[in-house]
Model the fold of this input.
Amino acid sequence: MENLIDKTGGSLYKLVILAAKRALELSDGSPRLVEAGPKEKPPLIALREIAAGKVAMKIKKKPKD
Done:
């Protein structure tokens, strides 16, 4: 789990959001980026993709006024 949190800058919140968004994409038919069995659920596949470094989060910087 710590390995996964490190992939999102140390934020559990960001990890949950990233995994949820990726799981929704997988449910909508996006191709899997890691090998997975036919009965594996999208949330588990999403977490495995994050752990493998196949999915990352873009962090937007706030513009300076």
Q: What stands out?
A: The helical segments are 2-6, 12-27, 42-51.
